[in-house]
Design a protein that fits this description.
heterodimer, A: mainly alpha, Na+/H+ antiporter like fold, 17 helices, 0% strand, B: alpha/beta, CBS-domain, three-stranded mixed sheet, 6 strands, 29% helix, globular
Chain lengths: 388, 157
Amino acid sequence: MNIILGMGIILVFGLLSGKLAEKVKTPAITAYLLLGIVFGPFALGIISEHIIAVSGTISHIALSLIAFSIGQNFSGKIFRQVGNQVMWISILEAVGAWLITLVGLLFFKVPLYMALIFGAIAAASAPAAIIMVVREYKARGQFVDILMGVVALDDAWGLIIFSLSLAISKAMYLDLSSSIGNVLMGAIIEISGSFLVGGVLGVILSRIGLFLKNQTDLLIWTIGVIFVATGISLHFHFSVLLTSMFLAAVVVNLNNESFKFFDILNHIDWPIYLIFFVLAGASLEIDLLGKIGVIGIVYMIFRIVGKFAGTYLGAHIAKSDDDVKKYLSLGLLPQAGVALGMALIAKEQFPQAGNIIFTTVAATTVVYEIIGPFFVKLALHKTNQIHN
Amino acid sequence: MYVKDIMQTEVISVKRGTTLTQLLNMFKSFHSFPKVPVIDNDGILLGVVHIRSFFEIFQPHNQDLLMRNPLSMISREPADIFNIDIEDGMGFLVIVADIMDTKVVKVNQNADLKKAYDLMQLHNRDSIPVVDDQKKLVGIISVFDIVMKIFKEKGLV
């Protein structure tokens, strides 16, 4: 099957599976992932090897667009809008999940570079699954407001933690005998290079954007600059995620009408994400599923502990209600798209360990998507946010 | 030719604290709901209420933040307005500040007409609020105002 026919089939069936998922109250991303598994080489084999071969390019495009959108959160206006509680809780629950999952996996003899990546992926949550439950039960109240704010921001912190962890892991993995100094130097070059590329291109995107006069030019210019940033970042082995996020952060702080650069992408980004997640499902190595038992369970349990501890600490510092301290972390358990994106990057960067990471995260994503909404509902019940 | 030369200066605006019921009553006899500027007590432009703002009533708080994460896809689904719960007192409890759009495209009254037109094209808007140097609302300019101006010059009107 040629690539264009393959993409067409993925889009058509992706749309159908998304609608089906809506009927059974499951986020579309989970449906795309499962569709990928069904279409992939381990089942029907509709998605051939040479379509999977281009998935690297699709992944980089999708992830740079995701990171660019999430990067617009890094503005002074947003930080003032969300308030103290959301800031403290979102930062500490993300860091808590990272740190405790990292330590927990080290305890089970997982190598440090792998544990760092797992920890970072643990920080991510799934906004769609959480919003779905809030909507279904028409939940309202202060607890819901804080939950929504935290969910909105924690993927942003998660992407930063992941990018930093990945830089360190890569430096360690490439030269296992290298000193801490060398590892840190490698990581610092990757991170500062990303900031430089994102920063310079952010200024260019914003300034030249002032001269554009119609939506078509704006769309072409925005995508063009994002691709250039991603391409340069890949060429120099910088972080695609950090580059795109910093690009967005610069734009959003330089330009009063910066929303135009982000809103314009809404017209074209979803088909790319759809293909990205279906191909992610297709590249899942089902035969590895049997080998992830202990790591998978440890990852899931320590992530929950980390989310709870971080939320509790953040809520304590921000002087939140007891309800927020005790129950907010239950609302943060679903995990899907961003975590899978991170795992795909790990898969690409670490040939062997990456497969274990990706398979584990894909499998735990499905479990989290099943049990996660139950815990969100529990949190809403316990805090009296469901009024009927 | 400048924006201030042809803008509409009689503008109906609302305050942050205007309630949902007051807002609906103000515009119930209109053909369609217009773009309504929101101002503070000093007349500074804060945002705009438009027809899609009413859908915000059915969304959780911080929805605008969630929209920044493209993977919260569910939030792109249009609100199911045929199947909604309206609680007692909602008409008084929901205020303009809860639903207004703060992504405002505005133009200075001293700007060139061409600039106002380009801004409207770029942002796909039919009309935008006009402000003075202190960012106070002083009018609204629409594509129609500009078209009328050109037609008048050509002797059509």
